[in-house]
Amino acid sequence: MDNLPELPSRVQDDFEADRVKAELQYAKRGEQFPHHPQFADGPLHQMLLIQKVFLTFCKHARSACRAGDWTPTQAAAAVDAAWPAICDFYVVRERGALSEEQKSKFRAALWRVVNDDQQWTQHLSELAALAEGARATAAAPSKLNLPTKRSRRRKTRPSQMRRKAEKVNSPMPVPQPGHRKRGRPQTIPDEMKTAAAELKAAGGTNKEAAALLYNTQYPTDQQRRNVPGILRHYQQRTKRPSSPVSPRSASPKPRQNKG
Question: What is the pLDDT of residues 15-65, one digit of tens each?
Fold first, then answer.
């Protein structure tokens, strides 16, 4: 069969083995009619041989498609090319040389029988299912790669990514004198308050006094506003007279019993 499409190597050997079995069964057809040999020479056996070999080729073409060696389109094209190749090969071998018109008429007559065979219907159904599965597999990656509505909403902008990278790569800030953590009250030594009070008495500003109290070159607005209250409270505390220590009361004299 020179014009028969070659199947992939993993199924070509299986097809050849099944074809040999079909030809062996055809060669032994006379054993089924030992007392009526005329039945063994009828054209029906030749037609059954062609039909069986063709449907066997269809089965192995589907196997190649399931294994991933062929696509459903390649399998369908190979089956279409295999039908005339198989049919012409056996009809010429059994009947001798025939014209193209005679071979075409024989193929058309035999195709009606093959087309009504249940195995051919099964072949078409399975091939259609394989083609549908291949389309679904090809479309699956594109659906998975589409960003969902939530992922599009949470997409990070390049500017945000740069700020995050700079934040990660930037060194940790070194605590400077006068800096304190938020939420923790700062204790100002009395010496600093005294110096700030003298500065204010000499005509200094709240900014200068805040710089001295908080030990910073650039005091905040809140620190400047705190200066009058801090100095007022400090002055009131220093001017408050210390309470005299009460002498320890003398122990009461022991009572004398009046005799």
Answer: 999 999 998 988 887 666 565 555 556 677 888 889 999 999 999 999 999
DSSP E strand boundaries for the chain = none
Q: Cα angle vertex 50, ends 45, 51, to 5°?
A: 95
Distance between CA atoms of residues 185 and 233, nearest Å: 16
Domain ranges of the chain: 9-142, 190-239
Q: C-alpha distances in angstroms, 139 versus 70, 164, 170, 228?
A: 18, 37, 45, 75
User: Are 230 and 193 within 8 A, CB to CB?
Assistant: yes
Compute the C-alpha angle 98/99/105, nearest 5°: 90
The overall pTM is greater than 0.70: no
178 exposed, middle or buried (CB, 10 Å; 0-12, 13-18, 19+)? middle
